[in-house]
What we know:
Layout: H1 3-12, E1 49-53, H2 59-66, E2 70-75, H3 78-88, E3 94-97, H4 100-106, E4 111-117, H5 126-136, E5 137-148, E6 161-167, E7 173-179, H6 183-192, E8 196-203, E9 214-220
Parallel strand pairs: 1-2, 1-4, 2-3, 4-5
Antiparallel strand pairs: 5-9, 6-7, 8-9
Helix pairs in contact: 1-3, 4-5, 5-6
Amino acid sequence: MNAWDAHAAQRLADGPLRPLEPPARMEWTQRPGIGPGAEILGEDLAGRRVVELGCGPGHNAAHLASLGARVTGVDRSKGQVQRACAHYGHHGTEFIHSRALGYLTRERERLDVIVSVFGAVGLTEPSRLLGACSRRLGRKGVLAFSVPHPQRTGTIPASPRTRERMTLPDGTAATVDRWDIDPAAWVRAVNRAGLLITDAHNLFAPADARCPTTLLITARKP
């Protein structure tokens, strides 16, 4: 069982799932209220086709749907999709059990926005996934993703692929393979995929952290 399935299994074991109202704000970090919200995706999301890669329990996907977007949340963990459906399926948000690359390759509909919040971007080999995102986005489509900041410990890892320790809800540890590359390398990877960087945010969460903890990048399809 991988880390994300283990995480979902422990949450599912906590008790019955219940419907939730969509959050009032989109979060790009693991702490609420830090950095921008959904406004970086465009002024009006109503009717726009949005996909979240690595949606987890569906909070951000549900928020985007509450703004009028047509949203699909994609996650490789069946348990996370089960949680997302139980929490927000009653609002009409679609959740699909699939690896991000497989979903992007299989589907053909043009997308207006692709987002990933500590999700598939950063957990999948960048050139393949970013290329697939670029191919699926329509003209002027937006890609926005946040990843753990490579300088969060004060130094950039020597290897671009690292094994990160993750604490599960019950306090036990699991490991996650992650592409941990510096901001300039992310910019080059996005540009090589045929997308133009529009902004890069170094977010500090908590706000008094000594080093930035989250890197948030937005890009646009020409």
